[in-house]
Amino acid sequence: MIKELKSPLRVVLENYGRINPESIEEYIAQDGYEAVGKVLREMRPEQVLSEIKASGLQGRGGAAFPTGLKWEFTAKAKDAPKYIICNADEGEPGTFKDRAILEGDPHKIIEGMIIAGYAVGAHYGYIYIRGEYLLSINRFNKALKQAREHRFLGEDVFGSGFNFQIEIHQGAGSYVCGEETALMESLEGKRGNPRFKPPFPPSSGLWGKPTLINNVETLANIAPIILKGSDWFRTFGTKKCPGTKVYAISGHVKEAGLIEAPMGITLREIIIDYAQGMRDSKFKMAQVGGTAGAILGEDMLDVPLDYASLGEKGLVLGSGAILVMDETTCALDMLECFLNFFKRESCGKCIPCRVGTEKLLELATAISRGEGKEDDIDLMLHTAKVMQKTSLCALGQSLILPISTTLKYSREEVTEHIKGRCPTGVCKI
Ligand SMILES: Cc1cc2nc3c(=O)[nH]c(=O)nc-3n(C[C@H](O)[C@H](O)[C@H](O)COP(=O)(O)O)c2cc1C
Ligand code: SF4
Fold first, then answer.
1. Cβ distance 160 to 154 under 8 Å?
2. What is the pTM (predicted TM-score) of this model?
3. Ligand 1 centroid vs 254 CA: distance in angstroms?
């Protein structure tokens, strides 16, 4: 199991490490499936939608779209059948929070999916799990079997007349298949390339039918909100971004692992209070939000981490991966590593990203070998800006953020490479 750091406040991870994830009885003993019972016995679908909207929950998969609004769009769609998808592809390097939730508390996701299905009028759910997550897949399979045996899933759930089925689909190792429309193509048995949007999934998703797609962590918040209420949920986090966030911390901290913290916590608090500080070295920078996230320097250590506060600065919280780096890290080496990832994972459907990722890597590699020119730095920025404006999906559109923020803090360091010296001694020039 993934190491969990000290997390005093737990909503999503309330059962993590505390119950046997393979025992439905232990889940039930923690009020498990009570939320499904409550919505099916006491609430109309519109009331469920209102409660989720009132909670202010935003999608935890990266885009932070208001969850209640997305559910409402899907509920209002006229076409049928409708589908629920749980996005558990989690291909972002350094991100392992969804894996931990699935391994540690799979029934919570099943509950979230059933409630979502009831609220929007769907009877079929799919969970798309990253193929390498064998333990998550096994545990989820066991949990599905147990839920069916207990009649929480299948025909006539809780004797309410509501039917809901869930099927697992195993991903095949492509980062872009986490993008919602690429995921749907893949689920339909096609090559996982993103689609043009609009139409958006709530009106036309899987097999062209109305589809609600949510991240694992988003769905893990649903049962607690239904049981304890939206007012309770709003007591955590900030006014604009209620609730908590699960972070996967890695890098040069004393204790890497998984934490849950209220929205609005600062990076300094995460590093000191949760990860027990830096290893015996000085903080240089951190990448927040996964590989497509921004690099934050020392001046950003006290900025609240939540969608709104970061959004005001043109930054993102993304999936919640935090990679902390000390002074031994070469900013250019790090950038080259990220660009290599994007070049490999670009699906190639659109030219700006297919060619742009290749060119960006070429430029970064040339600079790291001492073969770059001063103009190359601006050419990288220009290329990423063109990609931002012209790429089909967020993979190509978002590269500008890690590149521009790396250069904001480390342009001089990158320029040193052009002059023939890597200040940290990492690059072989
Ligand atoms: C390249 C790329 C990869 C993505 N990977 C994931 C992923 O692994 N899991 C996820 O939930 N969302 C991922 N997303 C975001 C999804 O497209 C979508 O916004 C999300 O699943 C919606 O769920 P939410 O509203 O609960 O956040 C990715 C987006 C892009 C552009
Ligand atoms: S931006 Fe990249 S990943 Fe997205 S569709 Fe275009 S080529 Fe594919």
1. no
2. 0.97
3. 30
Q: What DSSP string describes 7-20?
A: -S--STTTTTTTS-
**Residues 177, 117 within the same domain:** yes
Q: Total domain count for the chain?
A: 3
Quote the tokens at residue 233: 């949920």
144-148 — which CB contacts under 8 Å span 24+ positions?
Answer: 144/110, 144/168, 146/24, 146/107, 147/24, 147/33, 147/107, 147/110
Report whether residue 214 contacts ligand 1, using a CB cutoff of 6 Å. Answer: yes
Nearest-CA residue for atom 24 of ligand 1: 59
Convert the pLDDT of each residue in 32-78 to its tens digit. Answer: 999 999 999 999 999 999 999 999 999 999 999 999 999 999 999 99
pLDDT tens column, 284-304: 999 999 999 999 999 999 999
Which domain does 314 fall in, by range?
244-326
Answer with the one of 326, 352, 367 that is the final residue of a domain. 326
Residue 1 lies in a domain: no
- Cis omega (within 30 of 0) on the bond before 21? no
Q: Please choose from 179, 193, 357, 389 the residue to mutate so as to test ligand 2's pocket, defined by most ligand atoms within 8 A of CB.
A: 193
Distance 413 CA to ligand 1 centre (A): 33
User: Where in 244-342 does DSSP place strands (E)?
Assistant: 244-251, 257-262, 265-266, 283-288, 294-296, 304-305, 321-326
Taking 70 as the pLDDT cut, the residues of the chain under it are 1
CA of 61 to the centre of ligand 1 (A): 5
Radius of gyration of the chain (CA): 22
* Cis amide leading into 93 (omega within 30): no
Nearest CA to ligand 1 atom 22: 214
- Of 174, 181, 353, the one to substitute when testing ligand 2's pocket (max ligand atoms within 8 A of C-beta) is 353
Say if 56 falls within a structural domain. Answer: yes
CATH (domain of 270): 3.10.20.600
* C-alpha 421 – ligand 1 centre gap (Å): 39
